[in-house]
């Protein structure tokens, strides 16, 4: 059984997508997708030897060698054109690392622009949305989930031909999240606001001027209070 977080990622994989799961760790997500007859082929990419071995082991145990190719590689280097990937999932990493993986895929041509991107950043959602926007990826769906007291955002994007433009508030809070589950959304940002106010107070008490950070935080708080 998948975690609620990974189940939410799986929800956006279309029937018979050819999936590349980058940073797959144990390959739980591709294994679940195959075992539940959602897809027939996946690549599980890992850059670290330990998780790569875990993925190989699980795929072997489940007898899914034909359906899941496990490759050791950095980001989208684990993907080959013959895989004909139609959906890329990247979950459980920071938004800036996900952006970096996408960016290197974009530079190398491994990210073709035809794949649906299903992304679950742990932090740095704004950085990731900004990368998507500047590379003409339209955000087509988003989901906020809570698991074991932590909030997770899932961002689904597809490449479009026209330029994409989002406001600072959309980049920060998401396009669909305020309406999707307003109570959970409020809960997330109220917790975030409290946290930021606490940091501000600590900085003040420590007489630590960090002008740029403070300005950024105040801007954020103002944005939140407008909600
Ligand atoms: N995707 C799984 C999930 O969401 O539960 C595993 C998340 S785990 C916290 C992050 C994984 O990403 C680690 O196994 C790490 O080795 C892998 N990783 C980090 N940077 C990577 C990169 N550049 N290319 C491929 N895998 C990477």
UniProtKB/TrEMBL annotation:
Signal peptide range: none
Superkingdom per UniProt: Bacteria
SUPFAM superfamilies with a match to the protein in the record: S-adenosyl-L-methionine-dependent methyltransferases
GO MF entry, a single one: tRNA (adenine(22)-N1)-methyltransferase activity
One Pfam family of this chain: TrmK
InterPro entries for this protein: SAM-dependent_MTases_sf, TrmK
Name assigned to this protein: tRNA (Adenine-N(1))-methyltransferase
Organism: Vagococcus allomyrinae
